[in-house]
Structures
1.
Amino acid sequence: MTVRGSCHCGATRFEVTDAPTEATRCTCSICSKRGALWAYYTPAQFKLTTPVENVATYQWQSRMVKLHFCGTCGCTTFNESPDFSTGEADFDNPKIAINIRILDDFDVDAVPVTVLDGKNLW
């Protein structure tokens, strides 16, 4: 079942192949300030449906993660990163993290959220 997400103004839209079944709330400095809840997908499961020019990107420290947001309204939309599930950066298996708070017609409260201690991990 395709699920769609969009920023506040609609300039940045995307879709993923399936509804998220779980999410993370990262406590690192940037995620805490952005307030997103993240669900993870492979690049094949994600499709940006608006022009890439509408997306703004922020990178910090190691520059391994591309933190995307709408260039018009500023909503946190999605991130691109290596897979960190093993504790190491796996560049052969990139991940797309979507902010489930901006999914259209989706009950965010129905998804269990795990806290990721990014404040002390990175």
2.
Amino acid sequence: MVVDRHTVASKLMAYLRHEIALADLVDWAETAMMDADFPESDLPAVRDAVARLGLADVRAFGLLWEDCEALLRRLGYAVRLDFVAS
């Protein structure tokens, strides 16, 4: 399995949209760290993001909004919020 910056960003965005639970994101990241191939062109950013997401369920690390925004920015994405009345 190849995990590039788009793959990581997609998983993180799915978490932020409440499409996957934190536990699922962490499980995916832990599996990716063990089994995935990371493209050389994105290696530092992708590897660091996946490693960080793999620790998101540890109380000392957690996963704040600011963390998600910083990870996405490092992966080449800008975060924009859109608010609508419910």
3.
Amino acid sequence: MSAAVRVAQIGVIHPHAAGFRETLLLMPEVELVAFYDPDPAAARPLLQPALQGRPLYSDLATLLREMRPEAALITLPNDVTPPAITQAAEASAHIFAEKPCARTTTEFRSAAQAIRKAGRQFATGYLRRASAIGGTIKRLVEEGLLGRLISVEARWITTSVAVRNPAHYLFSRERSGGGILHWLGCHWLDFIRWVTSAEVTEVAAILGTLSGEGISVEDTAALSLRYSNGMIGSLHCSYVTDKATDQLFFGLRGTLGWVIWEKSGHELVARSTHPAWATAPTRVLRFEPDAVGGYGGAEGIALWRRFIASFREGVSPLFTVEDALRVLEVLDAAHQSAESGRRVALTPA
């Protein structure tokens, strides 16, 4: 039996840090060996009881030198994530970095190059790539059951800035680079690209700070997107509801059919006029919910297991650094478009 993968968490206080720790505690093939946080006094009480005896460093270089982790889980604010990635990769750790991995494309490029130069594997927290429904949608597209893709639509409406604490660094342009697009909209941008294998070629965006809170990032965003396959899409995000009932929606349509996935739930509605579905053109595909804890439940565990398999078993990775770069390029273009009032063209990689 192979030895457990030694993982160090770099950043303890991030909003998703505890969830990721819970995920790794559920995985017997992983050992969380150490932690780094710039504020150890605030970080220590946040560690789960099972982890209280593990070393907690205030200096990242010392952790990497003394503990030599096989993989690093980086859960830090966007402004300090790229240099932490570079440091960990140069210490020969494989990198799992919380999305979107940086404030801008430019900031992430040096980190991406460090990962490439070190020959390390990379993954990030776009969970829908590991979901059963996500994989089903991708398969329907690849099998041609939707025909030529024409329209894609995604929404993420969630709790207000006031509910989420306007003083948090997630609402700081200096720390995070952007608001709801950098925190939530990026999930859909990655998912659309993944399931359709199409790149964004043009962005028109309207961004607003409408909550009345004293924040420096957008809390509402509307994007129109043109893709390399000719498809036209939209993404709408807003921090606006008064309680934790997210309004999520994904719809994809082509010349032969469509799919609808609501609330990121366990049911996919699909229709295809392809001959292969002649006996039942409209179908409701149901997937069993999981009762697993941690960040993203079973999807989070699946994401980590695929990441580990990429460097332990040579399995093709679910992510590359280019995937993170492509999302950041769209985020940059959205902000540029909103500030200029013009469409912004992107050149597909």
4.
Amino acid sequence: MNLEKIIPKDGPSIEEVEKYIEKYSNEIIVIKCGGSVLLDRNLFNQFVEDIAVINKLDLSVIVVHGGGKNIKLKLDKLNIETKFIDGLRVTDEKTIKVVEEALLELNFEILSNINNHQANAISVTPQKNNIINVKQQSKELGFVGSPNKINKETLLNIIKERKIPIMVPMGIGDDGKFYNINADTAAGAVAKELNARRLLLMTDVEGVLDQNNNLLSEINSILANKMLEEGSISGGMIPKINTCLDSVNNGVTGVVIVDGRKPHSILFELFSDKGAGTLIRK
């Protein structure tokens, strides 16, 4: 394997990559992307390149993408108002159609860009090959579900063929209807079901910060729970940390909140000593 040809010039050093490849060789990496990564062209291109690199290194990676900002643009255009309850979008019949459309467009864009990098990606959507069976979260939220069962066989078969599943965070309920799922929650459910070595949650923040706003490169679940209680983890970071804790307590070796605004953050997180965010372990 010619690493010089595979690793981007502004990525981690070849020596470091060599050191870490073995660590992930028979493991699964689940990556959730959202936020700026999907909107900023430059970050998007680097993200796509990073995913392609992992595939070319013969490692197994699954991508779950969000699309909140994309959905919002579409809803605004159609003058459909959105209400949120605890950070989750209230989703009626009209909204779920728009959500579906926005996510499928994004899915296709990620897929075709990865394949343009001579890697091999495949779309995983409830329309084509549903992976997630959901239960409705609450009547008030409408078509918002939480994962109930994960069909891991389909995912494992895709990985066996050395392809990258690109998953839409949606599932089907027992009523046969489509439900939107919080992308962090969907990625966490997949990572747990497959006992992933790593779950990477791409965000628009540096990671978890201490009281003096310094980045914590690693924390365990005891410290994370303490920070939640004290309120030093707040806002949109709360559901992320809850996903992290749920994952590390249920079979995932480590979860990383990755700063998606950093160049090649995925490669630096997986294949370098310094990482690119906060690692959370049990």
